[in-house]
Amino acid sequence: MTTSTATRPPRARSVSRGGHPFARYALRRVITSLLLVVGVTLVTFILTNLVPGDPVAAALGQRAAEDPAIVAQFQSEYGLDKPLVVQYFTYLGNLLHGDLGTSTTTHNAVTSDLSSALPATLEIAIGAIVLSVIIGVVLGTVAAYRRGKASDHVLRVVSLAGLSVPTFWLALVLYYVFYFKLHIAPGSGRLSSDFNAPPTITGLYTVDALLAGQLDTFLDAAAHLFLPVLVLTLYTVGLLTRFVRTAVLEILDQDYVRAARAKGLPTRTVIWSYVLRGASIPILTVVGLAFGSLLSGTVLVESIFAWPGIGSYAYQAASHLDLPGVMGVGLLIGVMYLLVNLIVDLLYGVIDPRVRLAS
Amino acid sequence: MSRPTLDRASSKAAASDPALDLPGRWRRPRLRLGRWSAPLGIAGALVALLWIVIAILAPVIQPHDPLAQDLPILQAPGQGTFLGTDALGRDVFSRLLSGARVTIPLALLLVVMSVLIGAILGAVAGFFGRWVDELIMRVTDLVMAFPTVILAMVIAAALGASLLNAVLAALIVSWPSYARLTRGLVLGLRTSNYVVSGQLLGFSPLRSLWRDIAPNIVGPILVLASLDIGTAILLLSGLSFLGLGAKPPTPEWGSMVSDAVQNFDSWWLGVFPGLAILTIVVAFNFVGDALRDALDPKSRTLRGGGPTL
Predict the structure, then answer these.
(1) Which among A129, A114, A323, A357 has a CA at the least distance from the CA of A239?
(2) Integer Cα distance of A314 and A301 in angstroms
(3) Measured between CB atoms, which of B147, B159, B277 is closest to A295?
(4) Which A residues 223-282 touch B at CB under 8 Å?
(5) What tens digit of pLDDT does each residue of A77-130 get?
């Protein structure tokens, strides 16, 4: 996101360029995001290629690496003798063809590993973001309305404490308590062993099971979702609550809210149509941020629930120093995060005409 | 430096005129702590202090050698040892105490370094503008295009697993927030009267930044830094949990939790190191929150008369 542009002195607007203002706004945001995607690939390229560690020795072994003829042949075979710029474009070309290299732990193409793991992660990420946005908006609004009162302080302490919990530890403790001790939660994975995965339509087991009409599979998948979603929700809800509280507080001071209250509108109308509508831009911003921390959270949490998503994959790749695997995860999550922030930026323009007209 | 007489004259003039902002002088912020945040901040400070004392005294107060594998393995807490033993027969309590020596200094180092690097780059960007600004801010955009933990993980994996590399990776992802904050603050002050008047007196950019601007932007930066210590601890322990930080047998809290996943029955292996992380992060966050409350009037919880609905 480019907060920096806001502080720059306004440039003379070119009147000559026509087009719908929103289309222009959207186009500029898309281009910025594409540039950042290129930047993200540059980061992974630099990290894969320029970091200490000799790829020749790693691939061929020390003895072969001492023979200059073999080394030269290896380098020309993999294009390592070419200038870095050329190597980067080769890398980009491979990425565009969906080639992220081969994982050194699973010995599969990273792309196929990731695409089979992605739906599992999306399932918990979507669940957690929906849940934490609902809870965060409600708690944040309550805290703002009761500013200075006991409930505000309690919420403040709780959300601050929530931000301080190491997620991976919380996952471990909840898993231990709810599964191991209380036997309330089902075990690890996405389904119990006596269930088969529903026919793949979306890749989300709960949705697929409903579409196939398998109610018991749906219930089992939902039960397996419960703990991972709970952990990730607790992880992001503190952040959301605090931001929503601040955003709502800003709006509560505005004259139009006072006017709405003064003319006797019911509290519910004031909150929904005036306060939350006015606070929707900062709330959207933090939802984008929360999605980022959610993706980070999956990497730390999934492995504990043996949840077969990109988080577990990242954990496995990281602990085995499997560079193609780690870079693939970094690239995928980086692009997903950019995409979410692009959507958030575009929604700004939809919600607030000032955004698309002023800039 | 260049013209000491003029400098002294100007500050004297400023001091005699109460309407002027005092340049280059610490304006002591009025510490007005909210009714609730003050006790929490103090409690947080005490807990953080306790952990720092533990970190310093760990070699003296730990009952066992944290690396010695000479106790019965996987012993529950209270059966001979205070917090039990791990799968290699090491004393969990002693490892917990000496873990403070690993995490706390590195987290503090990380925050200090990110503040320094971020503040310097941000100040340069905000003060000089043009292509310098453009370059530095595009780099921060790039770093912030990734979720923090993900980029740190990618960098740490590329550099190779070691505690120092984890700190380096965390540093690379942490400085941009300070650069952005500092740049914004510097931009806001660059055209203010006392900074311009200093420049008219012939202050060099460095002197202008140091004498006129720095004292007035230190507060918000310190608040962010104090809130960031907790984040730094979480990030470093998270990287260690992923196996990208501390190497065995280093008693690092995140990797101790990671070991606990292997021995699920022995709950004490994971619970206590996690509690250690939790308590110290909560402590630093309460301190930071109370500081922000005191220094930043906008975030204050207690403002006169909330809305009555």
Answers:
(1) A129
(2) 11
(3) B147
(4) 246, 252, 261, 267, 270
(5) 666 677 778 888 888 888 888 888 888 788 888 888 999 899 999 999 999 999
Q: What pLDDT band is residue B35 in, cutting at 50, 70 and 90?
A: low
Place of tokens 């205070």: B82
Is the ipTM, as predicted for this complex, more than 0.90? no
Contacts of B147 in chain A (CB under 8 A): 292-293, 295-296, 333-334, 337
Of A2, A48, A156, the CB nearest to B158: A48
Kindly state the average pLDDT of the residues B84-88. 78
Q: What is the pLDDT of residues B250-296, one digit of tens each?
A: 889 998 998 888 887 888 888 999 999 999 999 999 998 888 877 76
Report if pTM > 0.90. Answer: no
HEC string of A228-250?
HHHHHHHHHHHHHHHHHHHHHHH
Q: Which of B282, B248, B285, B261 is nearest to B99 (CA)?
A: B248
Higher pLDDT, A45 or B20: A45
Of A304, A317, A330, the CB nearest to B146: A330
d(CA A178, CA A235): 18
Question: Which residues of A fall within a CB distance of 8 Å from B241?
Answer: 166, 168, 300
Question: B37-64+80-296 in CATH: which number?
Answer: 1.10.3720.10
pLDDT at A347 over 80: yes
Binary contact (B145, A152; C-beta < 8 A): no
**What are the extents of the domains in chain B?**
37-64+80-296
Considering only the beta carbons, identify the residue of A1, A152, A164 that sits closest to B281.
A164
Inter-residue contact B182 to B218 (CB < 8 Å): no
Q: Tell me how far the alpha carbon of residue A198 is from its chain's centroid.
A: 26
pLDDT score of A129: 92
| Cβ within 8 Å, pair A300-B137 | no
Which among A5, A1, A87 is positioned nearest to A36, based on CA atoms?
A1
Name which of B43, B96, B110, B38 is nearest B283 in CA terms: B43
φ and ψ at residue A307, rounded to 5 degrees: -85, 120
What are chain A's domains? Answer: 22-73+321-359 (no CATH), 110-319 (1.10.3720.10)
**What pLDDT, in 10s, does the model give residues B224-233?**
898 899 999 9
Res B73: pLDDT: 75
